[in-house]
Every structure is written in C-alpha cells, then in structure tokens.
Amino acid sequence: MRVIIADDHPVVRIGLRMLIDLSKTCVVVGEADGPDSLSSLLSTTPCDLLVTDFSMPGNLQVDGLKMLSMVRRRYPSTAIILVTMFANVATLRAAFAQGVMAIIAKGSSAKELPMAIKSVRDGQRFISESLRATLVQADAEAQSSSPALSAKEHEVVRMLASGMTVSEIAGYFKRSVSTISKQKSMAMQRLGISTDVDLFAYARDNGMVH
Does the keyword Cell cycle apply (predicted)? Predict the structure, then answer.
C-alpha cells in the first residue's frame, strides 16, 4: 500500500514513518505538514492510504472535518487513518461519518497503528481501545439518561446557538450576566461539552437552530 503521512509535527511524522516501514506491507510515498501541502501532495502522488492528524494549521481547511470531507470527495478510493489527540465523542462520530476507516489516539499509535493498517487493508474499521471506551461510555450514558437540560438551560443554549451573546440573553430574561453564564456552563457540563463550537454543533444536531 502506498501511504501518505500528514502531521504538523516533524517528530510525529518520523515516528509514524518508522511504524509504517515496520509493517512491511506499506511504502511511504510522501509527507505533508498541513492541509495545504497535503492537498497538493494528493493531487500529484497516488496513494492508497492517508495517515493524518485531525487538526493542522494551514490556509486551507483548518477544520479537520472539512479537510476529511475534501479528501473523501476528491480521492474516494484512498482509505484514511486518523491519528489524533481529540477524544471528543462528537468529533469521533463525525470522522467515521466522513468515511474515516480507523481512528487512533496519539498516545497509543505505536502499538495500534500496525493493527489499524491491517484492519483497513481487510476493509474493516478500527478504533483505539481508549477511544472505543469513550464511545461505549457515551452510548451507555445516552441510553441511561439523555442529558436532561433544564428548560432555562435549553433556552440559553438555543439563543446562544442562534447568535445571541450572554449579555443579550441576560437582558432578554432580565437576569444577571453571571446567572446566564452559570446556566450556559451547567448545560455544557451536563452535555460533556467543553467548547462553544461543540455547543453550537449540539444545538444544530438537536434541531434547536436551523
């Protein structure tokens, strides 16, 4: 299999190259240090497998999911293995939805990359043990109790996602900014979300905004 490696850290690329060379079934045909060089490399170098980081700085497609979508669209026959530090459940699911074949946690790449390559060669999905545990736990929590936002929290999340600021919402409800901030952080805690981007994605996915 012809492999392209993409990661913005040279030391990570060296490690990945060593692991891939050890697998004896693959040959590294190119390396990219970001979305821009990856895009031009893919356009000139045929490859069967892309081993890539999720989030790399660059002018093009800084958003990891958009980058994956671009690769899938332009090179549908290229399999993708994601090597990432992100253990966010929503991101993992979205990556699989984009057609990624395997996701490996950066901390466990030495042990699991050869297994992932074998799985992908056999046409099977692969996910790191640690990340699988994260998904299983999230599924169990979702079944035992879908994160129940209070009516006020739901409304705050909906208004934030529709573009209002915390202070605008406070003004609307005639409440203090700190009360609204507290409801926002409580909602994020319940949902297991740590960034505004994920909060907006949750609101969108759950039909709160259109």
Answer: no
Does a structural domain hold residue 146? no
Same domain? For 170 and 122 the reply is no
Average pLDDT across each block of 10 residues of the chain; the chain has 210 residues. List them in order: 94 92 89 92 95 76 74 93 82 86 86 92 92 81 66 90 93 93 92 88 80
Domain hosting residue 19, numbered range: 2-140
Give strand ranges (E) for the chain.
Answer: 2-6, 27-32, 49-52, 79-84, 102-105, 126-127
Report which DSSP code applies to 146.
Answer: -
Domain endpoint, select from 94, 118, 140: 140
Local structure of 81: helix, strand or coil = strand
